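At your convenience, could you comment on the folded chain following this short note?
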Amino acid sequence: MTNGRVVDIPGEHLLRHVVPGYCCSATVPCAVDPDTCCFAVSVNPAYQLEQLYNRDSLPYIHEYGLEGVQTMYRGTLRYRGFSATMDALKAIGFFNDDSRHIPATWPELIQAVIAAPPCRYRCWTCVMMFAMSGTKPAPPSCSGGALRDAVRDAIVKALPSASPDPAIGFLQWLGVFDPSMSTTQAGSVVKTFCALLEAKLKCVTRPSCRERLQLVTP
């Protein structure tokens, strides 16, 4: 609720309604729709954070004894750039939950998700290898620079006004362009992606990891 008005944001558009730090201040213009922007949380200048709306906030007015407030916001904090990165991956198919065959490696899966043509050896390379060994080499899966370029093109096509660089950097950090990176046979693209995030981040299995909840009143 913003200024006494209930604001509904469709789930499929959630990642495009991020609230950046210092939003709606007196000196810094709001970077998102003012009608859906509440207030921003500045935890520490060292943390470049952004906020996502987190489901229905209205029941918490009574829960926290805040009857009469004109603005109520329940959000999830993420590092700056999280929403843009996830929105780009969503746009090219990483959030698809349809049951499907999952290839053995991540380059093969990404290639299937973005419907990129398979990378092949150049013709003269095939000819030389065949002449030397008598065996025709199998074409390799896309990997490395070729796959990065294909993903970049897919993001630009799906989101012409967005930069593909954050998503490309994130995928590079995850290691999915490595042809030896195997997938988890989770039954769908998004479940396989989530399994990779859990394995990579390891925060969910580390006893020392803690979540932070913050209640802010303007």
About this structure: Residues 22-39, 120-131, 134-141 have pLDDT under 50 and may be disordered. Residues 11-80 form one domain.
